[in-house]
Every structure is written in C-alpha cells, then in structure tokens.
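Per reviewer request, we include the raw input and output of the structure prediction for the construct analysed in the revised manuscript.
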Amino acid sequence: MPLVKLVYGSVKDLISAFVGGKKRFGKPVMVKMNESAEVYKLGFITQKDLSELKIEPGFIAVYFPHSYAFSGNLFIVPEKNVRELDAQSSEIMKFIVSGGVVEVDK
C-alpha cells in the first residue's frame, strides 16, 4: 500500500506541474552543460531557492525531460549557465519530447 501511495502522489504531482494551478514547468531554459564545450540542453526551472536542501546560493534546479518518454532528470546547475528562453513552455516541451523534429509555433 505505501508503494501505491508513493506512485499515485508522484504521478499526481507531475500532472499538476504541467496543467495544474501551480505550474512548475513555466520557465523554459537553455543550460550550458560544459564550460569547455558549446553543449546545451533544454529544460525547465523547478526551484531557484535551494536553501532548504542546504545548497548554497548560485545553484538552481532544472528538470530536463527525455525525448519520446514521460520521464526526465533533475540537475542542480550553476545559475550562470542558465539562459531563460522567450518561448511558451508547451512549445519547448513539445520540441524536447519529439526529439526536436516538430516545428515550434511562433
């Protein structure tokens, strides 16, 4: 029973992050993943203040969805490597999940 409760709660939270009143994937970003290479990933800021986790200022949480899957990874990245995108979250999500093959509406 505890496992069902955990899975249900996690799925409910994930769905509300996309369509609920507390949208968590509202800020699409491009993150430089390596200081010595021009490699970027698209994702969404989920938390800017990580002090409750005892993580020093200057780092933020960014969720990176996987292509062709309903999963992703959460990275703690230096804020200086993050550039907010002037685009709708839904369009960026569509672009990521499709593996970059769909056109983004302007």
